[in-house]
Amino acid sequence: METLIKPKVAFHSLELYPQLALLFNNFQIFKQEALNCYSEHLTKFDEIDEEAALKVIPLRPEESDWERIPNEFIVKSRNLAPQTVHLVEPLENVKAFAFSSLKAGARITSYKGEKPYVMAMFCLQADKGVYLKNENKKQEIIEGELLIFDATMEHKVVNNSDKDRIVLLLLLDNALT
Known about the structure:
Blueprint: E1 11-12, H1 22-25, H2 27-39, E2 54-60, H3 71-80, H4 82-88, E3 94-102, E4 107-111, E5 117-125, E6 130-134, E7 137-140, E8 146-150, E9 155-159, E10 165-173
């Protein structure tokens, strides 16, 4: 019997992930809690450099990250974003979630995720000139909009604006597998 291999899709439709529709109704909550976390100078747990371009605040890390992230850091992060945790934690197929900021003028270099997940990126703050390129498809990252993409495909993020980009990242099971 021949095995069918499903083609990879760079960007996914919200129709495949209807549970994410609640993000739009809670935009202001997510944005305010993300800004609160960053105003508390929380940065990625193993990142000491205040000038780091990428800062991540894990609210529910991937299983593989639980051992390397100090529990106190996770607890503090979750305490600063209680409504976000309350709203996102019960969502079906969400494996992990975090706030992520990328400094103005910075970029995240191309990489491929190893696990068969898709990433949902709900933009909480961005100006014109911020985009995600997945394989050879480029999508602008716009405040209040959601991008869902295959994280196993080569992708990068560029912030060519004068404002830090802040997103709520959600790691999801791939609905197409």
